[in-house]
Write a structure and sequence with these properties.
Blueprint (H helix, E strand, L loop, with lengths): L8 H19 L3 H14 L9 H8 L4 H19 L3 H24 L22 H19 L4 H24 L5 H24 L15
Helix pairs in contact: 1-8, 3-7, 4-5, 4-6, 5-6, 5-8, 6-7, 6-8
Length: 224
Amino acid sequence: MVSAGRPAWWALALALVVGLVLTVDLLARGLTQTVDGWVSDTVGGWGLRDTGAYDPLYWVTQIGGRGTVLVVLLCLVGWLGWRQRTLRPLLRVLTALVLLTVAVYGLKYAIGRTAPGHGGDLLHHPDGQSFPSGHLANAVLLWGVARWQAVQYGMPPWAQRLFWGLAVVGPVLCTLAMLMLDFHWLSDAVVGAAVGVLLLGVVHALDALVLSRWVGARAGPLLS
């Protein structure tokens, strides 16, 4: 049985290829860096950081903020755990958080890319943590896990639609807002999303192979 929201094999393959190609090209200072610079120069010229648009756009970026997502997830898994008498949603979230932290921060520190406005697109810089975007990885992976729980445990249709929107539309809005405020390079966001897709696939696989057999972690009714 395919669990709700599990990335298709072609989506995982595409995420892997896109992530690798952009990362290698960035390290080689190829076309990726050129396109990133053009996008940043264009949106930087709009000067949105110094207008009334800053605050609403900033709040849109928080769709991918870890604090924002975790508050919702903790309420969700707490309610599901109490209602269904299962630890499985909590274990899924904890697994996702561990994988997310290791993968994203491992790449950030390994590549050390500075953010726009730092005085240049620098790599292997001690202050560089721009690549990949943690906000996009958060949005794709954690909202994806939330949608999975909402569908599997039979939450009301409106709740399932809400989490679908957050998992699918949320990352797009987050990307646009961050680019418009010149917080990230374009490739930061694309690779961050790719990492999120890959990690969502890993969490689904670990759930099927390990968490489903965890003693005492009983799943609720599987309503796909």
